[in-house]
Amino acid sequence: MIILQKTIAERAGVSYATVSRAFTNSAKVKPQTMQKIRNAMQELGIADGDDMLLGKGFVSKAVLVIVSDISNYFYSKVVKGICEGLDPLGYTVVLCHCGLDANRELAAMRRAMENGYSGIIMITVTATEEIVQLLQSSSIPIVLVNRYISALDLDTVRIDNYRGGYMAAQYLWERGHRHIAMLTGVKGSGTASDRCRGFSEGLQNYGLSFSSLDMVYGDNTRESGRKFADWLLAQEKPCTAVFVGNDYMAAGMVRRLRDAGRRVPEDYSILCFDDSDLVDEEGLDLTTISCDPVAMGLSAADIFLQRQGNLLGRRFRIVYSPSLKERSSVRNIAEE
User: Fold this and answer.
1) Which stretches make up the HTH lacI-type domain (predicted)?
2) Which residue of 118, 184, 209, 302 is most buried, as measured by CB atoms within 10 A?
3) Who's near 191: CB < 8 A, 6+ residues apart?
4) What DSSP element (H or E) covers 36?
5) The domain 5-53 is classified under which CATH number: 1.25.40, 3.40.50, 2.40.50, 1.10.260?
């Protein structure tokens, strides 16, 4: 379809971007320009040109889902929910594994818009200036999952990450921990920021100070967990507990600590976020803050369906409350 639009643009003597707008949102194209495009399509022998320009038969039943790491348990479960919500209605989910690369996100979004996709669901979004501008001008539904951009009015489905962070602080405090460190997610992520804010304000509410010196940013991988464990082991005054942003980082951290002869929870207590299959598969038995990612994916699919043909109106803001699953990775110092 991109090649077709470029051919039409050359014949009509207009830009490719103008033809793309004509296919996705003809109201933004001047009538005289629209006529040039119609004439060009007739000259090229393209049947049903008016239907295509009106969006009939051009908007496909394809939905782009952008995710940073499909191997991540949480993201894969969200995708599962999206597919369960859209497959029965004949939609095809097209997955883009972007690896936290803003350029790949941007390119995938542009391809989806140019090729008549029905919408985009973003489990990952990097708020660069170009991406924000593209989201603002989008003529197809956009749904963010576990992400939000405060400057934009978009449909969102997310966890109450602030509450999750606060719950973690309360739980560790009640079990007697006073020197606590945190390994959080990607710097600049709204999810990581909300968890950090909830955690730090929770500790402050109990009279504990929490500074940037007690916090390290990771990238949600096992490797960042291993590096954090090395950082922990190098501290002169070791902490008694750690709040970790996801199970993958926690898994890497636990393995490195065990290799160094440290025990969980005897030497380090660990509380993390996610409650993934790793908890059972690797015998980590981690106490976690959890939420249902499949349900979040289903909610995103439902919002997308309600947005078909109706980009205006009240925005959806669905927030899931987290819960705490207690296992054996946190030592209760208060009872000793």
Assistant:
1) 6-45
2) 184
3) 146, 147, 158, 159, 161, 185
4) helix 31-43
5) 1.10.260
